[in-house]
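[agent] plan:
  1. take the single chain provided in the ticket
  2. run structure prediction with default settings
  3. attach structure tokens to the ticket
  4. add a short note for the reviewer (M.T.)
[agent] executing step 1
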Amino acid sequence: MRNRIPGWLRPRRVATVVVLGFLIYIVVQTRLSAPPEFDLLAGPENSTFYRDAVRFRDILARDGVRVNIVETRGSVDNVSGLLEAEVPTAAFVDAVGAIQLEQADSMEASGEDVEAQEDPLEDLRSLGAIYLQPIWFFVRPQRQSLDLEDLDVTRFGVGPDGSTSRLIAELIIRNAGEDTERELVELGGADEDVDLAEVVDALVENRVQGALVVGQPETGLVDRLMRSPGIRAARVRRAEAYALHFNYLEPIRLPEGGHDLVDNIPQEDIGTLAASTELLVTDLFPPPLADLLLQAMTEIYGGASLFTDRNTFPNPDMVSVQLSGSAARFYESGPPLLRTVLPFRLATWIDRFIGVVVAFGSIAFALFSIVPKLIEMHLGRQLQVAYRRMEDVEKQFAAGRAPGPLLAELDAIDESTSETRIILRGTISSWLEMRQFLYDLRERIEA
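[agent] step 2 finished; step 3 output follows
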């Protein structure tokens, strides 16, 4: 009988299995690699979101990545689009905390147990806050300041459903007090897409006492409203207090002449509120694309602005949902080294190759740690069989049985064990000890 290593433990077969596993891993990694494009949910065509989306598109085009800009009505629309996305998608979102609060209030109003429900934004991840989005309250020239709880302000002009201005106005008014009744009046398009004449006419004709507009001062609508002679941007009284009560808001100040030094716009300091804007992605957003977005965020938003110092953004602390793994690594250690010196595609392939090598090395290490033990166990079982057969021969010899059949059994044991293949040097001593015992037993029987 030939005693040999089981077929599945032969080195050639083990190597074949390892190589096949390696090839399968490469194929899987290739199929899961970063796609060359993704959707970016922006806002209306003339909005800050849309303008920034164009900047991202131009920057990422340098690395061969195509950004599909999707026009939306605003932040609420963008969150809905992310939750329904079936392809890699990113989105600009103002006041994420306000959206979470609004959805929680909606569930509570419908009789659902809010504490028992999962966060509806749980599957989204943040790449960080990118800037503060100012909230402007435009009024007629006679009013210099505005308290959001003023009883004589009964109608606010806002954007349509899905816009940031309506969302924030609804939450502020809802918490203004039970005795305060206010009406929200829709003014044209979504936030920065609102028609200038419609806002001015609504204020002059007293159809609204205040118009809430969200956007950077340099964007079209806010710039034109600030230059309009029939209206003015009001200073929000108790802005710091509102920021304390609404954690998704920040107090900001636009100094006199801060928007236009030559024309001295505004003509006095304006203290108002701002919402933190975040770049959100789905939880399955490819890490290589997330790294590329984070580098673009630093390029676009890393400088100083009207309301923040240099290097304030992108910011990992002013977020309302969990940071993505790529973002957490980026803020802790900076961009991946390869992507700072190599083109995106080459760096991605090398990074993936390193991952494959590490995974393959881990598998190989595990195999080479286990296989010797399996071989040693197999040899141990063979030696145990031989020892049991020799023990039986020794018992029969002690009982006085004739030597002939016993020597024939020892010859059979000798033939079977002599053909045992010794692969590991560490096991040869056990095999030699067994063979020595066999020879000693033969000598005693022949004597």
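[agent] step 4 note for reviewer: The chain has two domains: 7-22+354-446, 37-335.
[agent] ticket updated
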